[in-house]
């Protein structure tokens, strides 16, 4: 970290409204911790300019590579990513110095006329760019005895919700965390229960990344780290890595603390201070039509180290592979 206390710290961020909002919150926290000015440096990534669907361009790293390149070139001092966009392999010369407390990890439905998923008409058109959501939404619909049509979409929150407002789609599914961060949660017509739709590994969490050699900055950013969030998302991402799946694969995962999950989802901030000893990890992989899902869970002591969190994820992935998960993912990333 540049030793001159008046020198601004440069935070690399994507240009989207959501990314700027996320990065702005982190910038405020870093200013408070370091007493130094923080300036946002807007960077355009391949995922921002490509019009292809994420499943076609691979998904893995498309929103991340340009930010990491800027870090390695010294154009920014640290970067903020949505954790679910990060490839599971971490480069040796970069480190995730902080994972701040996670936002709501659930998926959210924004439907016409205030409808919930169950109230949508048979044959409803639902927009999502995610194979994971497609598989689970189709499965959820089958369980309710209804048929839906999932429509592949891209674009920012305004664009996606615009498809519903214009009547082109009956509903879209978005991450609750993103809607909360940009003040659009009032438009949610239903938070999809994780028992029906598991989120993407790391959904709702942020990763604050910097050079592995910048020990002063690592120490400062580390004060933003939330140990429970880090343990949970490390287990989820370990599961994803062990399934050899990129972030565009139809894999859902959520590690949570069972006694706390319901009150935290209700927004009960008092629950955040409770002590819990067990972590539950759930994973799912399925065919896009929702006809076949492998969904399993395991519960163990809250991981106290990176290795323990990784082991929890690998253990569940092995069970899922034994149940045939690999065959459901289609083309596995190499």
Describe this structure in words.
The chain starts with 8 loop residues before the first strand and ends in a 12-residue tail after the last helix. Residues 53-59 have low confidence and may be disordered. The strands form three sheets. A five-stranded mixed sheet has the order 2-1-3-10-4, with helices on both faces. A five-stranded mixed sheet has the order 7-6-8-5-9, with helices on both faces. Strand 1 (9-13), helix 1 and strand 2 (38-42) form a beta-alpha-beta unit. The protein has 334 residues and is α/β, with parallel strands linked by helices. Helix 9 runs parallel beside helix 11 (306-322). It contains eleven helices and 13 strands.
What's the gist of this structure?
The chain is α/β, with parallel strands linked by helices and 334 residues long. Helix content is 33%, strand content 21%. It is built from 11 helices and 13 strands.
The number of helical elements comes to: 11
The largest β sheet comes out as: 5 strands, mixed
Provide the residue-averaged pLDDT: 88
Helix-strand string = EHEHHHEEEEHEHEHEEHHEHEEH
Structural class: alpha/beta
Uncertain parts: 53-59
Radius of gyration: 19 Å
Net shape:
globular
**Share of β-strand residues:** 15-25%
Number of strands: 13
Terminal Cα span: 36 Å
Q: Roughly what percent helix?
A: 25-40%
Spatial arrangement of strands, main beta sheet: 2-1-3-10-4
């Amino acid at each position: 970290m540049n030793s001159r206390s008046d020198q601004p710290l440069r935070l690399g961020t994507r240009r989207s409204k959501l990314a700027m909002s996320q990065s702005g919150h982190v910038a405020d926290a870093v200013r408070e911790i370091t007493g130094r000015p923080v300036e946002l440096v807007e960077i355009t990534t391949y995922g921002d300019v490509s019009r292809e669907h994420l499943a076609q361009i691979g998904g893995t790293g498309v929103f991340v590579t340009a930010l990491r390149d800027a870090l390695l070139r010294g154009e920014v001092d640290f970067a903020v990513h949505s954790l679910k966009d990060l490839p599971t392999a971490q480069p040796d010369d970069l480190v995730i110095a902080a994972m701040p407390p996670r936002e709501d990890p659930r998926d959210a439905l924004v439907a016409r006329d205030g409808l919930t998923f169950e109230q949508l008409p048979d044959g409803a058109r639902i927009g999502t760019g995610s194979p994971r959501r497609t598989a689970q939404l189709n499965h959820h619909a089958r369980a309710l005895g209804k048929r839906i049509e999932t429509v592949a979409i891209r674009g920012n929150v305004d664009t996606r919700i615009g498809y519903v407002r214009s009547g082109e789609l009956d509903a879209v599914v978005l991450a609750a965390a993103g809607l909360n961060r940009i003040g659009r949660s009032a438009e949610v017509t239903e938070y999809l229960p994780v028992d029906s739709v598991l989120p993407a590994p790391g959904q709702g969490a942020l990763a604050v990344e910097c050079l592995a050699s910048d020990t002063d900055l690592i120490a400062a950013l580390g004060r933003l780290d939330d140990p429970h969030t880090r343990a949970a998302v490390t287990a989820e991402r370990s599961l994803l890595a062990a399934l050899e799946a990129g972030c565009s694969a139809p894999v859902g995962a959520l590690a949570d603390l069972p006694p706390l999950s319901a009150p935290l989802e209700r927004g009960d901030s008092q629950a955040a201070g409770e002590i819990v000893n067990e972590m539950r990890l759930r994973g799912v992989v399925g065919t896009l039509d929702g006809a076949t899902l492998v969904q399993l869970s395991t519960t163990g002591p809250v991981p106290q180290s990176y290795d323990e969190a990784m082991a929890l994820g690998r253990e569940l992935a092995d069970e899922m592979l034994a149940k045939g998960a690999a065959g459901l993912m289609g083309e596995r990333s190499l």
